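S2.1 Query sequence (Sulfatase)
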Amino acid sequence: MRCDYACGTADHGIARRQFLGGLAAGSAAGIVGGLGTLAQPAAAKELATSQKRVLLFFMSGGLSQLESWDPKPKTDTGGPFRAIPTSVPGTHISELLPLTAQQMHHLAIVRSVNTKENEHGKGRFMMECGRRQMAGAKYPHIGAVAAKALSPANATLPGHIHITPGGSGGRSDNAAYLGPKYASIILGNGKPPQNSARAAELTVDADSRRNAFRRQLNNRFTARRKTAETDVYTYNYEQAQQLMRQGEVFDVSKEPAADHERYGTHAFGKHCLLARRLLESGITFVQVSHSNYDTHNENFNFHLEQVGEFDRSFSAIVNDLAVRGMLESTLIVVMSEFGRTPRINSRYGRDHWGTAWSVVLGGGRIHPGAVYGATNKNGTAVSDKEVDHGQLFHTYLQAVGLDSTQSFHVGGRELPMADPAASAIDELLV
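Output structure tokens follow.
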């Protein structure tokens, strides 16, 4: 479905509403006996406050920094919206984010992003993978890195989830050399991942006997020809069994009606509530998409509606993570593929702009209430502490306690976790 106000590229043929060892996961015997541990209530409670997690919001199309995190009212580029004070003295954001303004003491703004990239696909790859896209080279998504590095070895649920309108429960191909185990599962229709329910015609007893026979054959094969690949194969089956027993984790209708109302009954509200539910259940990385900010036409009208929708749900989940004691262990990131041009075009729109824009971070080791970097008076250039996608990627990893200068060991090769030419933004970390 084409968005009339968008640039019309393939990246926006969507509805507007719409981690260091090898591959082995452990012996088959250990897998069979140990996967259920984290499903116990006491372990789950401890997990909620100690396990490191990442919650990423991707504002698809290119959120305008001027209508969100870096407003420039009363300038030739500022547009019609005011800047309002926040819970951090001296820090102002767009009036379109009044509820988020009350949560800014939990968050930090980076106002000096310059990726020098104005193309949707390339910009998105850079922001999600921390490297510039190159022919013949594939790098893992930040979610795959987080799942590999942070998920418990005996996790009973997938570690990398994307929530987007129309998500069918299938897997993406975004883990690169880390392997498909760490690729994202795409949710969005309110149902568990594909093929995670027992066939209606298969009885519980028949299913139990079938799996017992499968384990017997796997153990016999493992005793003779054990490899990393067979371990992963066995692990995947056992994880699937646990997933089938925990299908309610993905059912957002189980959340209280008051929370549905507070988050908003629109799709994005439900997706944010699902994200909270998944994080509380021990899933390491959750990405929520909000679309579409590619506002070449009528930028202000569309941002008035879309940012308002985002504000309600985003502020609710930030507050909930803080109240529930999860914020110190959960990194929050709000990013786009780029920002929007300061110049307003003839259609009252803003075009693609990778030169001077903003991202928001919070939780983990991020310095709460910080504002890093700045743009000039009318937002046309970075005036202080310029950063790029590589520095941000290192910062995300270090914010959840990882040493981003380390490497993965895959197939006998050392592969850097993040771009060796970049480093983290130390001033943002505590």
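The first strand starts at residue 53 and ends at 60. Residues 40-192+263-428 form a domain with the Alkaline Phosphatase, subunit A fold (CATH 3.40.720.10).
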